[in-house]
Amino acid sequence: MAKLTSRAEDYSKWYNELVVKADLAENSGVRGCMVIKPYGYAIWEKMRDEMDRKFKETGHENAYFPIFIPKSLFEAEEKNAEGFAKECAVVTHYRLKTDPEDPKKLIVDPEAKLEEELIVRPTSEAIIWNTYKNWIQSYRDLPILINQWANVVRWEMRTRLFLRTAEFLWQEGHTAHATKDEAIEETEKMLHVYADFAENFMAIPVIKGLKTESERFAGADETYCIEALMQDGKALQAGTSHFLGQNFGKAFDVKFTNREGKIEHAWGTSWGTSTRLMGALIMTHSDDLGLVLPPSLAPIQVVIVPIFKGEEQLQQIDEVAYEIQSKLKAKGISVKYDNRTENKPGWKFAEYELKGVPVRIAIGARDLENKTVEIARRDNLTKETKPLENLDVYIENLLKTIQEDIYRKAATYRDEHITKVDSYEEFKQVLEKKGGFISAHWDGTAEEEEQIKNETKATIRCIPLDNQMEEGISMISGKPSNQRVIFAKSY
Amino acid sequence: MAKLTSRAEDYSKWYNELVVKADLAENSGVRGCMVIKPYGYAIWEKMRDEMDRKFKETGHENAYFPIFIPKSLFEAEEKNAEGFAKECAVVTHYRLKTDPEDPKKLIVDPEAKLEEELIVRPTSEAIIWNTYKNWIQSYRDLPILINQWANVVRWEMRTRLFLRTAEFLWQEGHTAHATKDEAIEETEKMLHVYADFAENFMAIPVIKGLKTESERFAGADETYCIEALMQDGKALQAGTSHFLGQNFGKAFDVKFTNREGKIEHAWGTSWGTSTRLMGALIMTHSDDLGLVLPPSLAPIQVVIVPIFKGEEQLQQIDEVAYEIQSKLKAKGISVKYDNRTENKPGWKFAEYELKGVPVRIAIGARDLENKTVEIARRDNLTKETKPLENLDVYIENLLKTIQEDIYRKAATYRDEHITKVDSYEEFKQVLEKKGGFISAHWDGTAEEEEQIKNETKATIRCIPLDNQMEEGISMISGKPSNQRVIFAKSY
Fold first, then answer.
1. Complex-level ipTM
2. Does B74 touch chain A (CB under 8 A)?
């Protein structure tokens, strides 16, 4: 197995190689679309199941809406349409026919042209609000709290596995409410659900904040986000929650009779996370040997590798290993015992390091004698010898420790990479030499934001929700500012 | 709540009304595409989770492949291409732009025409085998046992909710093997998994069989199926499992070195079930009052309804009801306590009958005195009074009994509707007056099959796997036949 390019050498290349070599995903025969391989999909399933649990716990139900949006519905909410029109796949025909010039080929049948073009959903507000229109008459029909797990298509020109693909998998929550306050409460609630999920399940520390107007979702009055920091000092938006105001309520004429008997437009929210989170996971924790997975997301949490000479010794190790395996399984821990004889232990060690298996148990001849095993942690690469006795309890606790340590390590890195700067000179220096989040004053105008973006490629990632108010002056215009915002280069 | 049209009056209308009134699904703003509503989706989720468990138990992994298939890949396997070309959605452009004649409208940007058209997958053999090509070099890379949960699009002209929709949700298994025998074994194994799922989880009895050549999946060497019988005497194909031979291996040049060191094309299977199963579920069990759900699939298994006069009595009932609820929940039973005061008990009874909740518990003033409850079964509409003591154990057993009884009822109906006939006259009479499965001899030719289809609309649903050999003569041509096959009109 050829070694991975190191992060120091070429971070971007390291990422691309790792995604493919660890069997997470690969490019497909369709421009910009990926194949998510079984190992990668198993990780995504764990994310999905945990998020789904949290959504249901907070009162949401799943449903499914069509993948196609007729053009007339797509264009109904103008800002939303404008935001997505430039990158959408359009279905224009519904049939192929045999090519009269070559019977082995098919061509689009010009007689099967659709009367109205269909857009492959880049996001589903339009088709969903068009449906909600028929579901909502009275305040008694509200709130509607629905989530959808689906594929969406955005015709991105420059794509990268998981981070930016023409098709990706995601969940999109779409809720309708009787009051503005309730809709804002929902928007914020889901942001906290995302943050909790990122930090406690994916072990990724995030900053919760508000987007500036220029970075808002097309069609939203306010976009909340969680921002994570990758190991190369670039930020990654890991989830967004939008307060839609009455924009879609008005565009799709979704009206209801309120408690006072007056007709009003419904208030909306939408919120989403996607397979992009796979990219965040990889770039937050992994190292030059391969993936590092928090135990909560590892399809295999523990791998057992025998180190043996000859069939007889292997049989003795088998016996010990199967017992460990069954005890760990009884505790709900996923364990693989790899006693294949085609590959040497060293090869297996490298393979499971690449795949990010959190704990490796090796059993050799001396271990058999001493009733011990060797335990190696993937996250910090430490090894120790432990007795067989109560090994299951030890491993169970170790997995919890690893989960916490992985989070702590990422949080430490992140905290060390939030730099307060007070001048544009310093801003540019920090951005270039250190990267990470830069906390600085901003004058609140789109102009200054735009200038900084053009000159440095850094954007305002968010205005943190827990910001302390602080008087200052903005870096370029010198205008007064009462709080710092978070800048960074980003994925 | 207006009553449902009865089955006797108009079976088709009854079905359409029930799907909408029970909140399972509705038509959307996109021709032929449905919205699966939360209650319907919750039932589908239960099907999906159980099937997914069975697939994993039999060694399969999930993965995800692109929704688009470039035309050149789509046409590679000729029969498959021919079979789906007439009903596929085609993406031809990747951008919209503002209409120069009306800035509020969008039009397809002619400059954003794709070099090669993309087909929205009607089934994924093409894109998947094009991917497998790179995964398979040696027999050691085989078998590949992958399943995908996805949406697919088939441009059907006449659509009906769940039964036939332009877009539907499904799972598609795609496996590759080193030998023909192994591929056939896999094809049959998955058929048995489907049959087991249909009978033991959905309470739908099925006949396992082989399709005739004319009914085979486009691109398969053999199609296995499970056939269910609806209450109107029409058959419904509930799942198919295809032995693909080396057809896709050859079309996509998927070659490997076998154990003997020779180069060979891989052998394939594919198998699928879809949201069509929702239609089968509804039409197998439900009645004129609404849905009848087997407990295994019911989002709400037990509903508790208080029958009270005044706030004080309601509070007393609340106390009892919450205790029942918590005891049932502890047993993993899903329970809803509906103590809303806006609706009368009679309204609630009708509502939960419509929704197919298997068990209703009513608690009134006399029940409080006697420490009893009234239990009503949705499936057979019987009621009985039972003591509060050990009610949880009683309900737990009752749910098992209901699951079995629902299956038995459907099996009895099905068995009573398998009619052996020996002449074409009798065939036509039975088909018209009784419907159901007709077991008859057939001469094995596509011509006779076609004639019967044209004259009676009945098709050969399958050649049952457990068929007893029996000498006979075919109904029309009078040629010798050594087994009966199953005919029916079908969905």
1. 0.97
2. yes
